[in-house]
UniProtKB/TrEMBL annotation:
Classification lineage: Eukaryota, Viridiplantae, Streptophyta, Embryophyta, Tracheophyta
Residues that span the membrane, as ranges: 21-43
Keywords assigned by UniProt, alphabetized: Membrane, Transmembrane, Transmembrane helix
Superkingdom of the organism of origin: Eukaryota
Name the UniProt record assigns to this protein: Uncharacterized protein
Keyword Transmembrane appears in the UniProt entry: yes
Stretches the record annotates as Disordered: 72-97
Keyword Transmembrane: yes
């Protein structure tokens, strides 16, 4: 009973080791560090920089004209065919009636 439990743990460890390329010890850790660093500099950091740049542009635009109107809420969807509660009021069907 205990040997089957140990064998299943051993099989799981070998499966995980093989799925990670068969590397063990320090070389495995080093490869994961290199992969993580590359992923950070190729995907995470550029997206963070782009987001920060967009926020800075928005702050600059907002500070340039303090009295400019900025919509702070999304329009309420209208279940009818007019689209939105404010906006195009379906003038074509009213003129036909």
């Amino acid at each position: 009973m205990a040997s089957s439990w140990r064998r299943s743990i051993g099989n799981m460890r070998s499966f995980v080791g093989n799925s990670m390329g068969g590397l063990r010890g320090g070389s495995n850790l080093a490869s994961w560090i290199v992969a993580g660093t590359l992923a950070y500099f190729l995907w995470v950091k550029p997206s963070q920089d782009l987001k920060r740049e967009q926020e800075e542009k928005a702050a600059l635009a907002a500070s340039s004209d303090p009295y400019r109107y900025i919509e702070k809420r999304k329009p309420i969807p209208d279940p009818q065919e007019t689209g939105l509660i404010y906006g195009n009021k379906n003038r074509a069907s009213r003129s036909e009636e």
